[in-house]
Amino acid sequence: MNKTNDFQTSNAEMVTISRAEYERFQGQEQQLLALNERLAQMEQQIEGLMEALRLANHKRFGASSEKSEDTLMEQLSFLFNEAEVFAAASEKEEVTEVAGHKRRKKNNDYTMDSIPEDLPVERIEHRLEGKDLVCPACGDIMTEIGTEVVNKLKIIPAQTIVEQHVYYTYACKSCAETADDGCETPVVKVPHEKSIIPGSFATAEAIAHIMTQKFVMGSPLYRQEQELNRQGIPLSRQTMSNWILKASEIYLTPVYEQLHRELLTRDVLHADETTLQVLHEPGKKPQTESYMWLYRTSGDTDKPIVMYVYQPGRGAKHPKAFLTGYKGYLHTDGYAVYHGLPEGITVVGCHAHLRRKFDEALKSLPKGKTKGSSAYQGLAYCDLLFAIEKGLDEKNATTEERYKERLEQAKPVLDAMFAWANSRTAAPKSALGKAFTYLKEQWPYLTNYLKDGRLELSNNRAERSIKPFVISRKNFLFANTPKGATGSAIMFSLIQTAIENGLDPYKYLAWLLKQAKDADLMDAEVVQSLLPWCAPTEYRAK
Q: DSSP string of 75-115?
């Protein structure tokens, strides 16, 4: 037997199948592949749902802070093998040096603060009298040898008083005596002071108080109405609403418009937006969301401006209209409408939003699988960038120093981060996939902060400024009309700008209303003099 025959007999017997059987096997193989693909999709969906569940549980039951569970330097060592570790500063017991020994300050469970020294003092003296002055040892009368002063804080609720204006009338007695000779007796009345709201008994102080209670303390008008009624003052919420809207329309709007003009002259701005429900918006259902937009100056100015703008929608036309004529930098989050702004506006992305994405991706992972994960690495890159900024802040770096050191320190980290992100993959709908997508889509804007030392790593400044409105919204819930929403935007703008400039908002509003009542608000110079930084120094918050 030859080699060919040996090979044929040594192998398994060949099997012959029909074409029909072959096609049936092919169909089963395709079904199996489809099932495997479907199974992979379902596994991916299940993992996405588990991620969402872990993240939801963390948001509900975990700490609200976005700080990493590990220390910053531990994260950074994963990337750059740095051995240095910062020890957390421990709380130290306050020690006062006293002649001969050290006195340790005792903790007080009831008082954490101290009484300011500049408050008015009501002195109450406690002395011994009569038989209490008799010495128990010899029966002689005791004399004062010293005092012990104990300060206590007394709070008196706000007083409501009636400001009664009495206008006298005058006549000439000489003319009255000769009236029979045909001489007319002149009668002169003291001119009436102009009312701040025509036909009302409102004062600048009353309106400023109502505004401050609502837009600073978050007390809706119905609560203020209840409190006033308890004091025996029947002042309705409708009346209060009319007062603040009319004052806003007559006196505050010109100042608000001047703030807008002033804002557009600045080189660096921040922007953000949040929802607002307006019940009677023309052409819209009450449940439809409207928006309160925020624009503010950056940290490079000594005259900060915070502006709120009510708009019925969230489209690109709104920031385009508000920023007409503006040229400079604009810090934003990743919202796409900001990316279509006119030439001359350079959008600067927010690294805090990027960090938040990786933080969520890390929190969505099962326990024990976080350290060393891509989410962990991405968060470490973000933390390193923030650590660089913190170092620049601590040494009070100038604008030029900040610009140069960012190029030396931050740019290599950014380059490494982008290269690392491009080398990783993740399911697009997973938390990590969303973080990678955000990083890659926002990259041109995330690197723009390197262009100028005045720019910031995040848009947190805008988020902090919009928070007062968000907190107040939880109390008043909605605006009744667009007019009311616009009035709220104007008052929030003036109040928050006053606070940013170190003013007491009540004192500033009362001063502004008094000054504006008799001023020519068509004169730009007059309106300019009413801006917060022009207010007297005695109206500064203590």
A: HHHHHH-----PPPPPP---EEEETTEEEEPPP-SS--S--
